[in-house]
Write a structure and sequence with these properties.
This protein is of the alpha/beta class and 308 residues long. Helix content is 43%, strand content 20%. The chain has 9 helices and 14 strands. The longest helix is centred in the C-terminal third of the chain and has 21 residues.
């Protein structure tokens, strides 16, 4: 019997994530949503893509959480997306109710799963899922730095006219305006970025990365990014299901690491079949450390709003 991966939320992010996972062909996929017909229709469309993209993944669309039973990994994308002028923080109380209900249902039917949070505000929702699920911190994580790093890499490649595959970068902190791009560690195929671009260009790229989500929201006008976020979540699923031991920047519950305690913040972690297997502590400058702690404080403010 094949492993099962559930994606909660059949909107653009969830559907993109489910499609990418389906194409990997290592597990069956359940796409669940409260809207009748939508997950079923999208799942059927994905099944019919199988003969074209050459995969045999069984994809089920459902409105019933019983169909998610015994999932190995669950990706939570459900929630209200950002609209123009809206910050991730504005979403906290609305999406809190949704994420709490979803987590309760998932834990009921898949008590041994690993949770990946995508709903915004991502770090605060990850904190909520940890509390509601009562899972160990190794089995609850948020997709944050992967997306933010991908945006930084994209902008660097666009500026240099090089392949994104050769760009390496690290972004820490909360998934929002207080994220911390560690630009001094960025490189292109081993060459420090500082030797390829002047400081003002690097700073501009970092600023554009911080505002990367808002830039897309402003352009779309009626929605937010979904191709990159959905694919980023699928990358975490890959590392878990294939036990790849990838070191990826994810939102993680810190318990003293980086001098931060009791809150979810994006840091590099090793991810394998059991979830987060190791938290990587990067030696930061005093300025970087202060910025990371400021980012953690911003997440904690959202946690306080939720009163959890």
């Amino acid at each position: 019997m094949r492993n099962k991966v559930t994606v909660v939320g059949a909107g653009n992010v969830g559907a993109t994530c489910a499609q990418v996972i389906a194409q990997r062909d290592y597990a069956d996929v359940v796409l669940v949503d409260i809207i009748e017909g939508m997950p079923q229709g999208k799942a059927l469309d994905m099944r019919q893509t199988g003969p074209i993209r050459y995969y045999d993944t069984n994809i089920i669309g459902t409105n019933n959480y019983e169909d998610t039973a015994n999932s190995s990994v669950v990706v939570i994308t459900s929630g209200v997306p950002r609209k123009p002028g809206m910050t991730r923080d504005d979403l906290v109380l609305t999406n809190m109710k949704i994420v709490q209900s979803v987590t309760e249902q998932i834990v009921k039917y898949s008590p041994n799963c690993i949770l990946i949070m995508v709903a915004n505000p991502l770090d605060a929702m990850s904190q909520l899922a940890l509390k509601v699920s009562k899972f160990p911190r190794t089995r609850v994580m948020g997709m944050s730095g992967i997306l933010d790093t991908a945006r930084f890499k994209t902008f660097v490649a666009m500026e240099l006219g090089c392949s994104v595959e050769d760009v390496y970068a690290l972004i820490l902190g909360g998934h929002g305006d207080t994220m911390v791009p560690i630009t001094r560690l960025a490189s292109v195929s081993g060459v420090p970025l500082s030797e390829l671009l002047p400081k003002d260009k690097i700073d501009a790229i970092a600023k554009r990365t911080v505002n990367g989500g808002a830039e897309i929201v402003a352009l779309l006008k009626t929605g937010s990014a979904f191709y990159a976020p959905g694919s980023a979540a699928a990358l975490i699923v890959d590392s878990i299901m294939l036990d790849k031991k990838r070191i990826l920047p994810c939102s993680t519950h810190l318990e003293g690491e980086y001098g931060i305690n009791g809150v979810f913040v994006g840091v590099p972690v090793k991810i394998g079949k059991s979830g987060i297997e190791k938290i990587i502590e990067v030696k930061l400058t005093p300025e970087e450390s202060a910025a990371l702690k400021k980012s953690a404080d911003a997440v904690m403010e959202l946690v306080k709003i939720m009163k959890i």
